[in-house]
């Protein structure tokens, strides 16, 4: 959607993490939220980054589809999952979605890159628009001296409507990089960044709970009540030293047969104890629980 103002144009961007920007016509086209914006006569057009670019993953936000994938994995596995494994699941899922959008006759359709020009009638695939297809129906000269020389093509999109795109635009941009020479970004190198963003998103929901690097659905955990915590406190007190979770579970009887889920549930309960009686003096991967006062570690 584009609204015209006397010397400015308001461009609603394509990515979910973008916001309307007021862009002076005379400014050099900026990179905003992963897009390069061209202001030209009656057309504003944006080129979002693709899954093959570092900028795509650097600006990663969690989508509803990503959450669905996490839900499916947790339900299918039935045990807590490492946040990095869930992040890798999301990355691979997005890569698969991008590949699935490509048409069967992909070899017969040229990939749009701004640095090239295209003849009327040429069929194109737009990787930055979820591999949408279109056919060139017209061309004209670009009109923005601050951008440099470029042209504009008008494309009839297979999904309906017409859009304009820059062509003969040779400035640096990820879409102008040839895959064979530029080296496709290894998306999995961003797994830790995606994991941090995902953890922040899951933490906003009461449906999920974490201990260390592991996450699980709260409603799939056995109930740990005040009686269980009192028993755990007594076991540590009598032992006079910190106890592993497995040692505590010998006396703290939780329902369920899966030891990983029972251990996770007890770890979460001890860590979130409202009275703050317990402290983990081990590691998240190998917790050892002591009392905050009066017990040697």
List its salient traits.
297 residues; alpha+beta; 5-stranded mixed β-sheet; 29% helix; Arc Repressor Mutant, subunit A
Secondary-structure map with pairings?
Blueprint lengths: L1 E3 L3 E4 L9 E4 L6 E2 L2 E6 L2 E6 L5 H5 L5 H14 L3 E2 H18 L9 E2 L11 E4 L5 E10 L9 E7 L4 E6 L11 H4 L8 H13 L4 E4 L2 E4 L8 H14 L3 E2 H5 L9 H13 L6 E3 L7 E4 L6
Parallel strand pairs: 8-9
Antiparallel strand pairs: 1-2, 2-3, 4-5, 5-6, 7-14, 9-10, 10-11, 11-12, 13-14, 15-17, 16-17
Helix pairs in contact: 2-3, 3-5
What would you say this structure looks like, in words?
With 297 residues, the protein is α+β, with helices and mostly antiparallel strands. The protein folds into 2 domains: 172 residues, no CATH class; 71 residues, Winged helix-like DNA-binding domain superfamily/Winged helix DNA-binding domain (Arc Repressor Mutant, subunit A). 29% of the residues lie in helices and 25% in strands. It contains 8 helices and 17 strands. The protein has a 5-stranded mixed beta sheet with strand order 8-9-10-11-12, with no helix packed on it. The radius of gyration is 27 Å and the shape is elongated. The N terminus is likely disordered.
């Amino acid at each position: 959607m584009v609204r015209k103002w006397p010397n400015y144009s308001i461009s609603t961007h394509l990515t979910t993490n973008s916001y309307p920007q007021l862009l002076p016509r005379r400014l050099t086209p900026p990179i905003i939220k992963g897009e390069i914006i061209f202001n030209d006569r009656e057309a504003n057009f944006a080129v979002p980054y693709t899954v093959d670019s570092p900028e795509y993953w650097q600006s990663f936000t969690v989508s509803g589809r990503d959450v669905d994938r996490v839900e499916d994995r947790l339900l299918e596995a039935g045990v807590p999952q490492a946040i990095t494994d869930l992040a890798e699941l999301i990355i691979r899922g997005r890569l698969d979605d991008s590949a699935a959008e490509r048409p069967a006759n992909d070899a017969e359709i040229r990939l749009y890159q701004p640095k090239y020009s295209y003849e009327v009638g040429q069929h194109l695939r737009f990787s930055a628009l979820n591999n949408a297809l279109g056919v060139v129906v017209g061309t004209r000269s670009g009109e923005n001296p601050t951008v440099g020389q470029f042209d504009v093509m008008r494309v009839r999109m297979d999904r309906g409507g017409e859009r304009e795109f820059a062509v003969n635009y040779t400035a640096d941009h990820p879409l102008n990089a040839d895959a064979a020479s530029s080296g496709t970004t290894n998306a999995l190198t961003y797994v830790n960044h995606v994991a941090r963003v995902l953890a922040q998103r899951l933490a906003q929901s009461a449906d999920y709970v974490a201990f260390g690097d592991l996450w699980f659905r709260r409603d799939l955990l056995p109930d740990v009540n005040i009686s269980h915590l009192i028993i755990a406190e007594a076991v540590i007190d009598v032992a006079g030293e910190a106890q592993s979770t497995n040692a505590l579970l010998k006396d703290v009887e939780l329902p369920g047969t899966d030891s990983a889920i029972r251990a996770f549930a007890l770890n979460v309960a001890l860590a979130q104890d409202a009275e703050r009686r317990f402290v983990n003096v081990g590691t998240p991967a190998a917790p050892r629980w002591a009392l905050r006062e009066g017990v040697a570690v």
